[in-house]
Design brief:
Blueprint (H helix, E strand, L loop, with lengths): L1 H31 L3 H4 L17 H4 L2 H6 L2 E3 L5 E3 L6
Antiparallel strand pairs: 1-2
Length: 87
């Protein structure tokens, strides 16, 4: 019975190490990719497609930064792309 118990513990330990190893590798790979901002909903100049301004206070909380991306806020507080914006 003791032999069976240590085999079970070894199997559980192997599974745990494998799971944590895969999760750690996936996390490291995602952080090293230069396109990770696009996957998180990065902001592209002259386009508000898929952008939630609440998630980008560094841009939409600063009028000058927003204008540098081609965005203006209307009187109704809705963000729009400037008509003359070019990528």
């Amino acid at each position: 019975m003791i032999g069976n118990m240590s085999g079970t513990k070894a199997c559980v330990m192997f599974a745990a190490v494998t799971v944590f190893g895969v999760l750690g590798a996936a996390s490291a790979t995602a952080n090293d990719r230069p396109d990770r901002d696009r996957e998180r909903g990065g902001v592209v100049p002259c386009s508000l497609v898929g952008v939630n301004p609440v998630h980008h206070p560094e841009i939409f909380g600063n009028a000058a930064a927003a204008q540098s991306y081609g965005f203006v806020q209307g009187p109704d507080h809705t963000w729009r792309v400037r008509p003359d914006c070019r990528r």
